[in-house]
Amino acid sequence: MATFRPGTPDQTAFLDALIERGLLIPSGVPGVYGRGAAFERVRVGVDRAVDRAAAPDGAELMRFPPLLPKRQLEALGYLKNFPHLAGTIFGFEGNELEANEQFELASRHEDWSAYQHMSDLVLLPAACYPIYPAIAARGPLARGGTTVDGGGTYVFRQEPSGDPARLQMFHQREIARLGEPDTVVEWRDAWRDRAVGLLAGLGLAPVADIASDPFFGRQGRMLAASQREQALKFEVLVHIAGPEPTAVASFNYHHDHFAATYGLTMADGGVAHTACLGFGLERITLALFCTHGFDDATWPGAVRTELGLA
Amino acid sequence: MATFRPGTPDQTAFLDALIERGLLIPSGVPGVYGRGAAFERVRVGVDRAVDRAAAPDGAELMRFPPLLPKRQLEALGYLKNFPHLAGTIFGFEGNELEANEQFELASRHEDWSAYQHMSDLVLLPAACYPIYPAIAARGPLARGGTTVDGGGTYVFRQEPSGDPARLQMFHQREIARLGEPDTVVEWRDAWRDRAVGLLAGLGLAPVADIASDPFFGRQGRMLAASQREQALKFEVLVHIAGPEPTAVASFNYHHDHFAATYGLTMADGGVAHTACLGFGLERITLALFCTHGFDDATWPGAVRTELGLA
Q1: pTM to 2 decimals?
Q2: Which of A41, A89, A138 would you mutate first to test chain B, the one with the most B CBs within 10 A?
Q3: Do B103 and B155 fall into the same domain?
């Protein structure tokens, strides 16, 4: 089983209070919670606020289930960088005798993993991954490229934690930009500022910073340093519970990583690059409850209006 | 790998047309598709139509991620009835050397399953499952019980198929009723009729019928016969592509199955029973495109109004 990372005392207290008030509903597994009506109302409000901020992009809407073909995870090199975070899907392929044996073991909560076989699916680790092959399948990009709004899709990270801001399954609200390198970088940088404005408008105190991904192992530390040096990743951070601010949005420039993997090019023969942004909808929702209090009816009027609650 | 069930010629033609028009976006794995903007607009419209039909219930809203603790799947006996449909989640727990070995195998699209270990999570097989323990945790039910609206949650079934109406991951719009046996049965029966009205209002030709679940193996055939005999399950069926009508909603009386598993009782000491209903949002959406045509702008005005498209 993946290692459980306990929360700090204030993270634990915040989680307990969220559960006590029915905002989160415990499942018995850390980092996996149901959402009560008030939590969901605020989360949907945040999603709508991103809709409004994104309207000028005129993005094409696509929606994806929280699964990815295993073949794509393999082709993207995800297992080099984040083997510890991936979730793969296994299933049963046996006969009635084996089904009975599996059932008997499972009924006693014993190990029935030997009856499970790897399928051709994994859990979606990042909401933008299905977008690139879908666009590449249409052929080369016209001048100016395209923008795709992937909506707020559930993504999975195997990292059980006592910090309510570190969920194993959460909604990543994702928009991807595909086009000429300059176009893509300008879009990414503009969105970093747009995100700061959006979060400030919700009464939070956002700070933008250069960031790196949680790459695995010793090699990973070098990758992270290189990612920072090239300023490939920005994050916007706010205060939730805990000693450090928490990233609630990230803005990533992939250079030609996805374009090369899927053979995505510009119609004029030029190189295509990609960038994406992701808002962590649950984290922003948690920051709002942490900042403005547990009863959203008492939040400042401007925040309630912004979230469609007023 | 689970056995692929090819579609009939008209199911295959319907799927091809849905892809051609960008309503569904292929992932490379059968039964796993992205949704284009028009498909999603209609699907959300169906969800809202269920909201309106459900308003008189005054249900409490809860939302759950598409995961379930493995322990619950084990306790519920799901693996006795549907071992072939379950999806379990595995992850990596090794060191850097093992991560490199896993990565090398994966990069060549070879078998890396030996590096994956069973986690404490499975994919959610039915949207109502997380509701019962959440309500049971609050203690005994007051007179009249309670109703919970679980929203439109993604659920998983390992059954790769060429029939676009048989998805491996789809939105099950679920409402559960918990209370005295009579209360629960009346609610279930009333909803069967309400669902027929709702679907007829969308220009479909719904038919209600007694049904059974796709239980596994020879024992399963007896379970299915018993389920039919006791009329525990109703379905509402409509025409999509294919020779037979397709179930798009189901109405299930669980007797004391969930109540007994989670120790759910009535406050007066009486027995608690449960029932649930589920609308297959993608199936209803497919039926609408099949019935009214691929361009939702040309659909009958009353249908468009009902779906919030007009």
Answers
A1: 0.97
A2: A89
A3: no
